[in-house]
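User: Hi! I have a protein structure encoded as tokens and I'd like to know what sequence might fold into it. I'm fairly new to this, so please keep things simple.
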């Protein structure tokens, strides 16, 4: 089986089978990361360009490492040190890069729809590494991989997404992906950080964190985007923690096992206490490892790979 599209622009509209194909492929590729020489020649001769118009640490490094593990030639581009600073448009930048015979473009951009725009301009495959407040599909896929790895399934799980839902592309991709995979998804956060009519996305809205804690098995904690809080979307960080923070006291009162994820970076002591982030409930570091495997899987499948990766088929023992 292959992906229907040569691009990964978002999880909205993807089928359950396509999502599971990526997750299954990532699971088989993950073993490469533990080899003495963690590299396979699968994408040798392919060129990937990373276009990052926004700052990034985890996502950018993860894509770069995934490309190296698959033996692709990669070029990393940042807007601040390029012709973009001189006024070059996204379309002209991308077409100049494609003229260098690039196979795949990975793009992060502040404008929602930028990856879709590129996909209509280029012959290369396009991978969305986060566009505005729209989607961040590979983050949601690595979250789903981590959950499935820890709990053995996605279907039937109750997942709560806590925090700044309004500005979060991670939340949107997780909602699309998890509901398609059969999980029941709820969202929780201040009313000012909740999209209008969010229920239309097929989620339940928890008005209080205690309601979410009573029901959910998995919690995806979102970063409070401090750069946006000058707008007065809630009174103070202290009040946010008191009302919606995943505190040690709240976790201790549960008396049951839960699984906690966070896309990072964490505002410790705000959306989550350090004791929770570093507890047995947390799978945050597993998310980082799985991010490389998921991005390897996406690059492999978009390059024409068919289903489960077998190292022996590519000259690996």
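Assistant: Happy to help. Inverse folding works backwards from shape to sequence: for each of the 317 positions I chose a residue that suits the local structure. Here it is:
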């Amino acid at each position: 089986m292959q992906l229907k599209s040569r691009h990964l622009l978002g999880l909205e509209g993807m089928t359950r089978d396509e999502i599971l194909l990526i997750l299954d492929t990532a699971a088989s590729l993950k073993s490469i990361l533990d080899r003495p020489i963690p590299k396979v020649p699968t994408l040798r001769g392919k060129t990937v360009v990373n276009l990052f118009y926004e700052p990034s640490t985890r996502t950018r490094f993860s894509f770069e490492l995934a490309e190296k593990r698959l033996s692709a030639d990669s070029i990393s581009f940042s807007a601040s040190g390029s012709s973009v600073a001189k006024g070059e448009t996204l379309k002209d930048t991308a077409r100049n890069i494609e003229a260098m015979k690039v196979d795949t473009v990975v793009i992060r951009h502040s404008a929602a729809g930028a990856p879709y725009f590129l996909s209509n301009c280029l012959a290369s495959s396009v991978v969305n590494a986060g566009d505005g407040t729209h989607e961040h599909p590979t983050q949601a896929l690595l979250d789903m991989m981590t959950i499935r790895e820890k709990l053995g399934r996605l279907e039937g799980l109750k997942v709560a997404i806590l925090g700044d839902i309004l500005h979060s592309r991670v939340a949107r991709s997780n909602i699309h992906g998890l509901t398609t995979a059969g999980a029941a998804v709820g969202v929780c956060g201040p009313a000012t950080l909740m999209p209008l009519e969010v229920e239309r996305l097929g989620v339940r809205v928890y008005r209080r964190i205690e309601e979410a804690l009573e029901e959910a098995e998995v919690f995806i904690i979102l970063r409070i985007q401090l750069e946006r809080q000058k707008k007065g979307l809630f009174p103070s960080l202290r009040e946010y923690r008191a009302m919606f923070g995943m505190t040690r006291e709240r976790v201790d009162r549960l008396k049951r096992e839960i699984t906690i994820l966070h896309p990072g970076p964490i505002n410790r002591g705000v959306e989550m206490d350090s004791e929770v982030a570093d507890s047995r409930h947390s799978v945050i570091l597993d998310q980082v490892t799985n991010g490389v495997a998921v991005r390897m899987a996406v690059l492999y499948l978009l390059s024409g790979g068919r289903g489960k990766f077998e190292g022996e088929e590519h000259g690996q023992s």
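A useful reference point when you look it over: Residues 209 and 244 are 6 Å apart (CA to CA). Feel free to ask if any position seems puzzling.
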